[in-house]
Write a structure and sequence with these properties.
single chain, alpha+beta, three-stranded mixed β-sheet, globular, 9 helices, 18 strands
Length: 338
């Protein structure tokens, strides 16, 4: 038995379900672990995602042969046996180039077949460490998703409010609709808007909302905070704190691949960096509150640590974890006074 081919078929099936929005939470986590295993995996996934996103809005459901498509999917999943001739042909086609070219079509066929039998309730957009993504929701709202984050939203918004669930960080440019409020649910709070732009940082245990335009209502522990343009609300020691004199661009520049730290404590900087580089930081108490001015744009973690050591009397050392579990932290960074 060709185990490698079986593994490829298994992950391709998960990619199909992920792209069409029907992957389970466990399948999404498995896919993210697979992406993080190698640059080649990451490249293959994003090539397939790009093709899916370009083809998805344009296909005509009426042109699909439902019976033929369903039979192909059943054979692919092993529910219906393949004919010997089909196996040979399939293996010949299942090369790297063919996978990239055929997967979007398979995804479209799968989407139609499954949606004809089951309602698709949720779509999950997720990013791995070091990657960002963006999408347009069914109502026209634009979303940018930061690294190590996920956004759960319905395939279409009903007559009630527009509700999404965020884990991590995202920037929202909400399509104006005063009759249907847009609600971002996080583990800490609910942000409600009708047409505005704001950034939500919900990387646990941190939480902040930076309001770029318009107004939003922030519900934290049943307390309603009405935010105005230019304000930022953070949660400190379990209580919301509103700040008005803050450069909000510093908190939104990540959309263009830039991280700006303006007189920020080292511990806060490391809390952001760990979500970008999948690194665990151990900071000596003597330097945890030391502030830094730093602008990063695509630097490697070694370059970042070098900048830290040039900017302050600190020493950065690293230790690697030998683990087969790709979802675990693979590197530890220790920062202490020099």
């Amino acid at each position: 038995m060709n185990h490698k081919a079986n593994d490829t078929t298994h992950i391709d099936s998960i990619i199909v379900r992920y792209l069409m929005g029907s992957a389970t939470h466990e399948e999404t986590e498995e896919l993210l672990r697979w992406i993080e295993q190698s640059e080649e995996n990451k490249k293959v996934f994003f090539e397939q995602q790009d093709i899916w996103e370009s083809l998805h809005p344009t296909f005509d459901l009426n042109e699909i042969d439902i019976e033929k498509a369903e039979k192909r999917i059943l054979m692919r999943t092993g529910i219906e046996p393949r004919k010997p001739g089909f196996i040979k042909m399939f293996l010949r086609l299942w090369s790297r180039v063919a996978a990239v070219l055929m997967l979007p079509l398979l995804a479209l066929l799968t989407y139609y077949i499954l949606s004809s039998h089951n309602d698709i309730h949720e779509i999950v957009l997720a990013t791995s460490y070091g990657c960002t993504s963006n999408t347009v929701l069914p109502d026209g709202t634009k979303v940018w998703l930061n690294a190590n984050s996920s956004l759960v939203y319905p395939s279409s918004f009903g007559k009630g409010g527009r509700n999404v669930i965020l884990y991590g960080e995202a920037y929202f440019d909400v399509k104006a609709d005063t009759n249907h409020p847009f609600n971002v649910h996080t583990s800490n709070a609910v942000v409600t808007a009708t047409g505005t732009e704001f950034n939500v940082n919900a990387y646990e245990p941190d939480f902040s909302v930076s309001l770029i335009e318009g107004k939003v209502n922030l519900n934290i522990a049943d307390t309603i905070i009405r935010m105005s343009q230019g304000e930022q609300v953070t949660v400190e020691n379990g209580k919301p704190v509103t700040t008005t004199r803050v450069n909000l661009e510093n908190y939104c520049a990540w959309r263009s691949g830039t991280l700006i730290f303006d007189n920020e404590p080292l511990i806060d900087i490391c809390n952001r960096l760990k979500h970008i580089y999948n690194i665990e930081f151990f900071i000596a108490p003597e330097v945890a509150d030391k502030t830094f001015h730093m602008t990063l744009k695509g630097e490697s973690i070694n370059e970042v640590l070098h900048l830290l050591q040039l900017s302050a009397p600190v020493i950065c050392t690293s230790d690697y974890i030998d683990s087969s579990d790709s979802s675990s932290v693979r590197q530890k960074i220790y920062i202490k006074p020099s």
